[in-house]
Amino acid sequence: MKVLHVLDFSPPFYGGLGKHLDALGSVMRDEGHELHLAFPRERAWFEQAAKTAATVSALPQIVRPVRSGFADVIDRVGTRAEYDIVHLHFSFALPLALALKPSRRRRFRVVYHWHNPPKSLLRHRENRAHGVDAEGDRMEAARRKAGGSAIRAWLKRSVSDLAARSGDGIIRRHVAVSGEIRDLLVEHRWTRPRKIVCIPNRLPRMPNGAAGRIVERRELVVGSVANFREQKDHATLLRAFARCLQHRSDIRLLLVGDGTTRPAALALARELGIEARVDFRGYMGVPDAAYREMDVFVLSSHYEGQGIVVLEAMAHGLPVVATDLPAIRETMEGCEMEMLVPSRDPDAMSSAILKLLESPSLRADMAQMARRAAARLGSTEDWARSLIDLYTAVLGER
Predict the structure, then answer these.
(1) What are the Cα distances from residue 140, in Å, to 75, 125, 135?
(2) Domain at 262, CATH number
(3) 63: Cβ–Cβ under 8 A, 6 or more apart, which residues?
(4) CA distances from 150 to 128, 129, 140, 147, 157 (A)
(5) Where is each Glycosyltransferase subfamily 4-like N-terminal domain found (predicted)?
(6) Which of 42, 266, 301, 393 sits a CA distance of 20 to 30 A from 231?
(7) Which residues contact 139 (CB under 8 A, 6 or more apart)?
(8) Residue 210: inside a domain, yes or no?
């Protein structure tokens, strides 16, 4: 079979995405199939991607696909290359563009990949959890106070519902990285249960000895690996660490990653007076060395599709403190759940971190649980074979 993966952005670094696509390309090639990749713009890592993919190309029409003629280009390319499957990622405008322009010559079948839960459905769930319906008076007051309106929120969700259900008409299978995403899509009738499958992301197999700690030092290291953007909420982590420093002076915070909110995080560290104890390490393509420096891993996200960095930390034998999100609970199944804390709560987060810092035996027990749980989940090669099985099933349908 010939499969084209279309991704709606060209990340500066290949990273975890590249590890998964490399595994898929290798397994497909070994089994006599072809993986083809398309991104909006060319990057230096195209050469690396081409080691396992049959072709790697830049396709500018991926950006603004509804307006740019994306459907025509994909139909033309797909017909010429005789793709069996077109697998779309990230932007739901991609399948929507195909749905809005039906074509008799379209022979390929469409798969869509959900890497994060839809924000509109998360907001709706949060409103319901607080006993407030989006059309109710209290919701309207809250929206107005925040500069919006209940009507605007309702309209945005209605547009999202319409776009999702329209796009679903041309999608043969949805792939969700977590059960939370699958359940949200089915509950809100964005698709039907038989059309969606849960295939979580995995990690490459780790060589023996890769998870060893760096132990000869006088300080303990709290660490996080996360892109700097609003979702990751570095502000809560910094405030929690500042509270930890009030109890212990022998600790350091290691932050790996880069992004738009990094300047604000640097400013907050200065404001809190903890700048000297925070190491802003920047982006690391392979953060294994950073994981080996850490004694405790923390993720402070507001929401996650899966939280692959939590899985990486577990594989490195790190005890984890994280916000209590459904996707994180799935990833950490078999680990200590008491270390899951409410989002945007620096007091709860600092208490959990301190509990681990002050108990070497608890850290050791959680490290053991984390390694076992991560090992049970399988590898990127297992992930690739699950996708190939999915493609085979889709092509076997009428």
Answers:
(1) 44, 16, 7
(2) 3.40.50.2000
(3) 8, 40
(4) 14, 17, 4, 10, 11
(5) 14-201
(6) 42
(7) 127, 132, 133, 150, 153
(8) no
80 Cβ contact list (under 8 Å, min separation 6): none
Lookup: tokens for 162 = 């319409």
Do 129 and 264 lie in one domain? The reply is no
Structure tokens belonging to residue 176:
């969700």
Identify the burial level of 192 via C-beta atoms within 10 angstroms of its C-beta, where 0-12 means exposed, 13-18 middle and 19 or more buried.
Answer: exposed
pTM for the whole structure: 0.82
Q: Are residues 335 and 366 in the same domain?
A: yes
190 and 41 co-located in one domain: yes
Domain presence at residue 305: yes
Angle at the Cα of 274 (from 261 to 242), degrees rounded to 5?
A: 90
Same domain, residue pair 357 and 391: no
